[in-house]
TrEMBL record:
One of its GO terms (molecular function) is hydrolase activity. Gene3D superfamilies: Hotdog Thioesterase. The keyword Aminoacyl-tRNA synthetase does not apply. The keyword Hydrolase applies. It holds the Pfam family 4HBT_2. This is Acyl-CoA thioesterase. Keywords: Hydrolase. Its EC number is 3.1.2.-. InterPro entries: 4-hydroxybenzoyl-CoA_TE, HotDog_dom_sf.
Length: 148
C-alpha cells in the first residue's frame, strides 16, 4: 500500500517514510466490535502488538535478540474503525537506543489512518534485565528505520 493523501490526512499522524514501513494485515474479529458498531478502543493495542510480532518475524529477528518487554505505549485515536473495514498496521523503527527500540505505527482502515502509536520496547535477557541491543537486531530492523 502506498502513501495516499487520505492515509496521512490527520496532523496527529506524522508524515514519515511510511513506504518503508512493515505492513501487517490484521484480521478483525466479531468480538472486536462493541455495541456502537465500531472497534473497541482496547483492541487497538492488541492489533499493534500483533503487528510488532509479525514485523520481528518477517524481518527474521533472531529469537534470542528479539526478547523484549513493553516499557511505554502512546496511542492517539484519530478516527473510529468500523466492522468490516480492511485493517493494515504500518510500523517503522523510530529509534534504536542502547537497550531499547522505539517503534511508531499507524493503523489504517480501508487505507485511512485511524490511529498512531509510539512504543518503547526494552531488550531483556532471560532474567528480564535490560541488555544491550545487539548487532543482529540492529541489522534486522535497519530497513524499517525512520528517515529524515
Amino acid at each position: 500500500m502506498s502513501l495516499t493523501p487520505t492515509a496521512a490526512a490527520s496532523p496527529r499522524i506524522p508524515e514519515l517514510n511510511w513506504t518503508d514501513a512493515h505492513r501487517a494485515e490484521i484480521q478483525m474479529r466479531y468480538s472486536d466490535i462493541d455495541t456502537n458498531h465500531h472497534v473497541n478502543n482496547g483492541r487497538y493495542g492488541e492489533y499493534l502488538e500483533n503487528a510488532r510480532i509479525m514485523m520481528f518475524r518477517d524481518l527474521n529477528v533472531p529469537h534470542d535478540e528479539g526478547h523484549n518487554v513493553l516499557a511505554r505505549m502512546e496511542l492517539d485515536y484519530v478516527q473510529e474503525i468500523h466492522a468490516g473495514q480492511k485493517l493494515v498496521v504500518e510500523s517503522l523503527v523510530e529509534r534504536i537506543g542502547r537497550t531499547s527500540v522505539t517503534v511508531v505505527a499507524r493503523i489504517l482502515a480501508d487505507g485511512v489512518a485511524c490511529a498512531f502509536s509510539r512504543v518503547v520496547l526494552v531488550n531483556v535477557d532471560d532474567a528480564h534485565r535490560p541488555r544491550e541491543v545487539g548487532a543482529a537486531l540492529r541489522s534486522a530492523l535497519a530497513p524499517t528505520l525512520v528517515r529524515p
